[in-house]
Specification:
This protein has 2 domains: about 35 residues; about 70 residues, 2-Layer Sandwich (Beta-lactamase Inhibitory Protein, Chain:B, domain 1), CATH 3.30.1450. The chain is of the alpha+beta class and about 120 residues long. The chain is built from 2 helices and 4 strands, in the order ααββββ. The protein has a 4-stranded antiparallel β-sheet, with no helix packed on it. About 35% of the residues lie in helices and about 20% in strands. The radius of gyration is 27 Å and the shape is elongated. The longest helix has 30 residues.
């Protein structure tokens, strides 16, 4: 019996082909999704000492640093509910600052969605 006609060889070739096709599909899907992902530096990742770093600042300090916000949203959830801590949001034209118990925890830049 020739090696190319043996049952072991034909199973090996089928499995190798299936693996190769599966691998190519997975890699193709990853490349396609990578094209859609837009990586850019963001003020969400601000480091201590930079303009947009607010972690731990009080509401007064944030107001001094950026001025008064265009909108102050009430704490969510309302005081006295079982879901705590309440999160307060101050909305500025370019970003929103999130507070927990009166201290800043995040500054999130507003992004325009691609059309």
């Amino acid at each position: 019996m020739d090696q190319r006609t043996s049952p072991f060889f034909s199973r090996f070739v089928r499995n190798l082909s299936a693996f190769g096709i599966g691998f190519a599909l997975v890699m193709g899907a990853q490349v396609a999704s990578a094209d859609e992902l837009v990586m850019r530096p963001d003020i969400n990742q601000a480091k201590p000492g930079t303009k947009f770093y607010v972690h731990g600042l009080s509401m007064t300090q944030v107001a001094r640093k950026f001025g008064q916000p265009s909108k102050k949203l009430a704490p969510e959830p309302a005081k006295g509910t079982k879901y705590q801590p309440p999160i307060t949001r101050w909305v500025y034209p370019e970003f929103t600052v999130y507070f927990e118990h009166g201290h800043a925890i995040h500054l999130v830049k507003h992004h325009q969605r691609p059309k």
